[in-house]
Amino acid sequence: MALNLNDAIQACWKRIDEGQVATYIPALAKVDPYQLGVCLYDVDSGKKNCAGAANVRFAIESVSKVITLLYAIERLGLAKVEEQVGTRQTGFAFDTILNMEITKETKPLNPFVNSGAILVSSLIEEEDHRSPFDQILDFTREICHDPQVTLNEEIYQSELRTGDMNRSLAYYLKAKETLANDVTTSLETYFKQCSMMVTCESLANLGAVLANDGIAPWSGERLISSDAATYAKSVMMTTGLYNESGTYSVKIGIPTKSGVGGGLVASAPKYGIGIFSPALDPAGNSVAGLALLEMISRELKLDIFNY
Amino acid sequence: MALNLNDAIQACWKRIDEGQVATYIPALAKVDPYQLGVCLYDVDSGKKNCAGAANVRFAIESVSKVITLLYAIERLGLAKVEEQVGTRQTGFAFDTILNMEITKETKPLNPFVNSGAILVSSLIEEEDHRSPFDQILDFTREICHDPQVTLNEEIYQSELRTGDMNRSLAYYLKAKETLANDVTTSLETYFKQCSMMVTCESLANLGAVLANDGIAPWSGERLISSDAATYAKSVMMTTGLYNESGTYSVKIGIPTKSGVGGGLVASAPKYGIGIFSPALDPAGNSVAGLALLEMISRELKLDIFNY
Amino acid sequence: MALNLNDAIQACWKRIDEGQVATYIPALAKVDPYQLGVCLYDVDSGKKNCAGAANVRFAIESVSKVITLLYAIERLGLAKVEEQVGTRQTGFAFDTILNMEITKETKPLNPFVNSGAILVSSLIEEEDHRSPFDQILDFTREICHDPQVTLNEEIYQSELRTGDMNRSLAYYLKAKETLANDVTTSLETYFKQCSMMVTCESLANLGAVLANDGIAPWSGERLISSDAATYAKSVMMTTGLYNESGTYSVKIGIPTKSGVGGGLVASAPKYGIGIFSPALDPAGNSVAGLALLEMISRELKLDIFNY
Amino acid sequence: MALNLNDAIQACWKRIDEGQVATYIPALAKVDPYQLGVCLYDVDSGKKNCAGAANVRFAIESVSKVITLLYAIERLGLAKVEEQVGTRQTGFAFDTILNMEITKETKPLNPFVNSGAILVSSLIEEEDHRSPFDQILDFTREICHDPQVTLNEEIYQSELRTGDMNRSLAYYLKAKETLANDVTTSLETYFKQCSMMVTCESLANLGAVLANDGIAPWSGERLISSDAATYAKSVMMTTGLYNESGTYSVKIGIPTKSGVGGGLVASAPKYGIGIFSPALDPAGNSVAGLALLEMISRELKLDIFNY
């Protein structure tokens, strides 16, 4: 591979200054912005190439929306999930219900805006006395190939305390009769899934499963259906980077999902990529992380529209 | 190829009943809805496989937005075009300025909503006494490999007569100081480019150039830069089917642009596809055409997210 | 007085057919639509003139927003209330937060949309172990000169059960840090105030206090300040009939507030008016009630713009 | 009268610093902001009391919307005008079509936003070879009792040159098939009516006609119907000060219309008021002018909601 990841990190480092760590909860506000890590999983060779803060644990936040979506599809089937949530772009910020209001839609426009993600979380039912979150946590450990994924109780408590806009969204969905579970349980699941701690390597593994048509490259075992993997990558491309998804589909051209913890998961053909850098742009995406992903895409020719 | 296009047409034929031909101008309103044609250009073999109404001429309408975009990039460079128009989804109908108003944007959100397309048309300057449209027409004949492409004067006159919403959009852009030319010239160019008559085969050729990284497969000549081709395919994926782009990125997964004349151009790896069927869904996309494209995508495994 | 109220009721009776009773809670859905009552309080003569279903008790619903607003002004002062809530029209339905979202406002646009009314309810603090609602109830009995006003427990329980959109609004305000109390208490107060049972006569008394510069005409006692009365009448004129306030300021020209229980309170110079007819127009206003008010305004020349 | 107008002007003078003159056309941008004039017409006594820059001529701008509305009602009848334009508040800025778009309305929400005013201007037809504007000019001279009102050609030419947003609105109305005349004529009328030069005294006269039920107090002649006067005052109260109408209905309580030339016309019972001060607040209303009007309302007890 022509690309030296350490050099790439160095080249993107100064972009950190352009962003700011998330400040809506203390646990995120105190994170050191000057971190940049990457892990690149080459599915063909089975080799992982990591650099920088690749093994630092950070809050998964909205990257978890991909995992819960995949789990919901596994449990309920793709058709049922598609009945409940659209795959259209909103044109607005991730935590607004503006577009549902204006367009008189009753189902969330896509699973990656908060309203859609809360709805997807509400679809997971308790099973064998295992709460929705316990199931999601187990599935996360499996698809991220990382048994160390745990709930960060401090972050979860912070999310609970500051989650009033998400409560507003959840009650809106309840009022529209689209939320599948009660508000408290749905939000407990949602806040907890956002509070899981992962590393670049965990996300590279997740990306690699998606890059390998749903099969774990480390074991050869199918973890999700081919349809689920295809669906997730498509929705990541069109709505994964919030309101700037179209901007980066042009610049980078790789299905990607970001979180306000600074994480990015990307899934190119034959490559799973996990990136972490906590300083965010105004849309909530990691600045240096996206710069690094753009460089990787260009150097390794991973833009899926480049054919 | 396992797929028999005649069988596919037959299978999708009944979907025509679900749509309606565009009625905003008489020349489109009188088109027979019961038409469905397709042309599939296999770039590797160089073979074209056509069926149904593949050689019927129809109004290109919004499919021309792809061509003018490519021509503007060739003339001005990609950077200059990206300065003038975004690549974000709007969340609204193609002829509204709602989103620009709400988000206080002064540049159109993408080149495929009407405001963005009018802006792109305004970027083309007169050159050597050749009007912007004359240049676009020549470029269309070249990239569609179809010297028969001509302006349909009846449709153009109709567009002129009924084009008040587009005039409203153009003056809005003028007021925001983003339109690059005067309103009359910009709209003349825009209305004329929409009034060109093409066939499924012309659009398959256009799709094949995009599918072949910008090189005409029939001659080996590069017609547009690789970057322009990649850019166009990305924007077609995220915004090419109006407000339903995200819906079809999941269902079909091929960069596609539709027009209210019933045309579709699609560009999958190694395949250029042109389709025509004039009965439209409420979003303005060909109903049977998209059904046929979905079938082709599934049978030939062309979904670019399926990796 | 030239106007015979029984004749007026008869003339407006057939308008009932144009409306529908509120159906969002069973207790309102089962109300007989064929009711129309009015009570007209002539402040100068001290005479009350009632007709039709003038003594039927019905749910006060949004008419209570006037009372709680007046009470909040009495407790906190007008300046403090004006700091917390605007007096601008929204251009949208009463239960939407669309306009706050679009305009990036953090304070509700006026006290008569639900978000504004919930905010005003949140301003009332517990005092001497009397809950906000207990204080509002006592104040309602006083200003409506009606000790029979009580909480309808069935309606209150229904409001609680179906109140998810109001919960969404309350959490939205909480997230914007504008709600003055916790969500549960604020909504308990709000839902209870909406569930008080009043008559046309109670509302005519309320209207008469406003028509008499804040002084109860039955006792000569000042119940609210002149400023509070003036403020309330102004806001009733510009926003009292929801999104149709401007329509009726032209047709009727009397400060009026409606409720989905079918009640109307109006306050013209020298006249307090209470009306009840439960069949509503799509905006949530009593159809026959407004027809009757329009007739009264015309016959008694009460339009305050007619000078 | 207890109020000394010179003292009042002095008291409000410093408020001028809070505003800025309109800058969208050079002819307005060069106006000296440090001007404040007032003329108060006492209908009962027939006396006019003027102070400050009461006889300075300034561009009438949006105050002309009242005059054209009254003239349209005189020519077509109130019912016909009400068919074409609503009386609802928009919740948005005066030059936006946002609310029509969101609410899917085809008729402008009220006659004082630009779209509504352009529509009203389009209703005036050529008559006896007199253009719509010539008729409006004559009517203005009559209702303002000011034969010196003339068209300021420099301002008109500037409006023409910078009027693209109004062109956008006009074509929007044309596309919705609500504009009654062609775009060019409608806008010529509109731009010309905005370019008439008036004084505080002219506007006080206009306000006095409205304050006197449509009868010119200087001659006893009825100039407009009582219904037209009542209608205009109601719409001025609910929408006359743009998006801040509700704010000032509470603060001032007098039907008022502002223009970006710095003019205000107000019509209280028995008083017509004209004010001029060109420094504007962000909503487009004269800052010192409204401060002065608020002082006049308070001192003379003119708030119509204060009963």
The largest chain-to-chain contact, stated as pair and per-chain residue counts, equals: A-B, 41 and 41 residues
Q: Which fold name fills CATH's third level, the topology of the largest domain in chain A? A: Beta-lactamase
Count of discrete domains of chain A: 2
N-to-C SSE series of chain A? HHEEEHHHHHHHHEHHHEEEH
Write out the strand line-up for the largest beta sheet of chain A, numbering strands in chain order: 2-1-7-6-5
Pick out the low-confidence regions of chain A. none
Multimeric organization? homotetramer
Q: Count of DSSP E strands of chain A?
A: 7
Largest sheet of chain A: 5 strands, antiparallel
| Helix share, percent of chain A | 40-55%
Beta-strand portion of chain A reads 5-15%
Name the CATH architecture of the largest domain in chain A: 3-Layer(aba) Sandwich
- What is the CATH domain class of the largest domain in chain A? Alpha Beta
Distance between the termini of chain A: 20 Å
What structural category do the secondary elements of chain A indicate? Answer: alpha+beta
CATH superfamily of the largest domain in chain A: DD-peptidase/beta-lactamase superfamily
Shape of chain A: globular
Number of helices of chain A: 14
C-alpha Rg of chain A (nearest Å) = 18 Å
